[in-house]
């Protein structure tokens, strides 16, 4: 039994050193997967075939192309001399690894052995290096530095294996941070690539995203590099989000990037993410991202110009619905225009994609800010049922409250339109559309009620009537949430009305 | 008798106890969060009246070995300290009525060191900020009766700055509303006596919208229901005194449907693989729904009510 255990330990160490060589030979591996051994065999036969085909093609040109691609992603800040070692030159276990075109597959059964070996190495080296770095009794300084470098290298290699297999191993990531703090910019760019590789396999890893933010924080000093990183990360998240839907941590990272952006970058992002959002209308994260961008527009100080200024760095954008704004009048029009576009686009999406919760939530957000934010006070919107289109116009003369009344009225017409929509081919979606439409109307009434409380005005007859109507429609369309409506609506109607209803 | 209509308490107790001896890849890959796992498992056992089935002395001795000189606890022996494991360690010792073995000043000073100028908390020395860490800090210090060690007012201000238009809260200011983060923020505000900052009706509405047709709860719009949100959503509703706003019966049925009747344990959704995380949250959710035979759980401290009473008596 002991013999078998020893054999396994030895095999684990051997596999680990092979993994090390593979990763060192190609620092631009950008995709990792753990696969069934049969999948490894299939991948191998496919790549052998393509290698045979490619033998006639000038190999150098293929190689250069892929290097350029990687370099582009890294934002121009990396200065890595790409080696010409190919994995074919490496002796590695064909039953454990497949590496081709910067993609690495590892057979699942060897993970346990490799992980055990990496963990054992981590504990041993950490003990020697982190706990006793200065008590090694070496007399010469250079001897000590040399030895420390050796430890560092070993530690970086075993923690790399640990985080590749277990992306949430925080202590392994932390050990890397300690070593990186002693290092150079190039190491940080390599570390960004490692987190990307880990995220390709574990896109929801909390610790991998946190480590990436830490690395970006370290390279913040290198401004030219940072700009490239911001754009690269934004694209990276779109790639990841396509495979890993509604990934809270990935989108959190993207929202975090917004806090480093200028007005131009924010408007650019708003336009760029539109297509993605329209393709994945059920992904609330992307619409939340747009809300971050829209709110950030309201907060960028008028002096910030086109450059990422220090004032915006380090500050998370605030989506709490604050009405404070440092936007200049000229910019205010630009900002209002972008918001107006969003409202109009939102109506189009709601009509195209029936019964999509995310779209209605987004509209709740938009309407709240149109009713609430002084930046929007010059904008006037009407929904024309004839053309089924929103049109925006600017009117400075109309006073704010009548403009709000007009907006609310127009939204109610939009709700009525959606309630009357009948889709015989998609009855389930049509049903959901009606549910969301009527709860959206309730949302507007709740917002109106809040404003009444703030201004000290009384509920008028029309408001009470609308609310009673909404309550009865909800009772029919969303009866399973009856407890909610019974809890939420009566306080809005006021005790007198409730008493009269009960009578 | 319909097997899925009742909670199979004994099976779940046996399932949790069996986790102690597992040596497969999955248990190896979760070694680093073992402190959380122990808290989930032991709290579930306590709610089911079986806390003493495991060796208390062995567990406490292991917990103490996870503490670092700085005062914080790691997720396991040899792992770096973090506020979330520190909270779990303190919660487990509260379960066992053994808070006295801790040097509370040392832990308090660790947590004080994690608070930032804006009131937020680092999770550890590396600077990641999250409202989960605010909850960890506030709940942990409250259990140690050392809330004086931090600037509570600033901590509250930071949490409130993470409030969104829908009444929910995110991980940082501007973060998307998420039921897990909402629990952390609402529970932290409840412990700090600052629930007046919460928009109870608006947030209650958002939380109720998390209930889907099957009766289960999701954590964000358009997501699938998951048993863990039976805790995150329901505990928030309980703190806001709005549990009666949802359909409690259909939620109960959903949780019971997620049991592995043969081998014990509860999964995220019916017929998925079980784990200790979902087993705890399923049992805790049923406790909030006042399932007969289970101890009541405190929605803010995430500990049995009798444990919380004992701590503050």
Percent in helix of chain B: 40-55%
Gyration radius of chain B, in Å: 19 Å
Task: Please state the structural category of chain B.
Answer: mainly alpha
Helix content of chain A: 55-70%
SS summary, helix count of chain A: 20
Radius of gyration of chain A, CA atoms, in whole angstroms: 29 Å
Which sequence of SSEs, written as H and E, runs from N to C of chain B? HHHHHHHHHHHHEEHEEH
Structural class of chain A: mainly alpha
* Whole-number mean pLDDT of chain B: 96
Biggest contact: A-B, 57 and 47 residues
Mean pLDDT of chain A: 80
Shape of chain B: globular
Strand content of chain B: under 5%
Low-confidence stretches of chain A: 58-89, 303-325, 386-397
Distance between the termini of chain A: 83 Å
What is the end-to-end distance of chain B? 43 Å
**Helical stretch tally of chain B:** 14
Number of strands of chain A: 5
Notes on the protein architecture:
The complex is a heterodimer of chains A (503) and B (313). By secondary structure, chain A is mainly alpha-helical. Chain A contains 20 helices and 5 strands. Chain A has helices at residues 2-25, 37-54, 59-73, 111-131, 141-165, 170-180, 185-201, 206-218, 223-243, 248-258, 263-279, 284-299, 329-352, 357-372, 400-420, 427-455, 461-477, 482-488, 490-493, 495-502, and strands at 31-35, 97-100, 103-107, 379-384, 389-394. Chain A has a 3-stranded mixed β-sheet. A two-stranded antiparallel ribbon of chain A has the order 4-5. The longest helix of chain A is centred in the last third of the chain and has 29 residues, at 427-455. Chain A is elongated and about 90 Å long. The model of chain B has no long low-confidence stretch (mean pLDDT 96). Helices cover 48% and strands 3% of the residues of chain B. Chain B is globular. Chain B has a two-stranded antiparallel sheet with strand order 1-2. The longest helix of chain B is centred in the N-terminal third of the chain and has 14 residues, at 34-47. Chain B starts with 8 loop residues before the first helix and ends with a helix. Chain B is built from 14 helices and 4 strands. Chain B has 313 residues and is mostly helical. Chain B has helices at 9-18, 25-29, 34-47, 56-65, 83-95, 104-114, 131-143, 152-160, 179-191, 200-208, 228-239, 248-257, 276-288, 305-311, and strands spanning 266-267, 274-275, 297-298, 303-304. In chain B, a hairpin with a 4-residue loop joins strand 3 (297-298) and strand 4. The chains are: A mainly alpha (503), B mainly alpha (313). Chains A and B meet through helix 4, helix 6, helix 8, helix 10 and helix 12 of A and helix 2 and helix 10 of B.
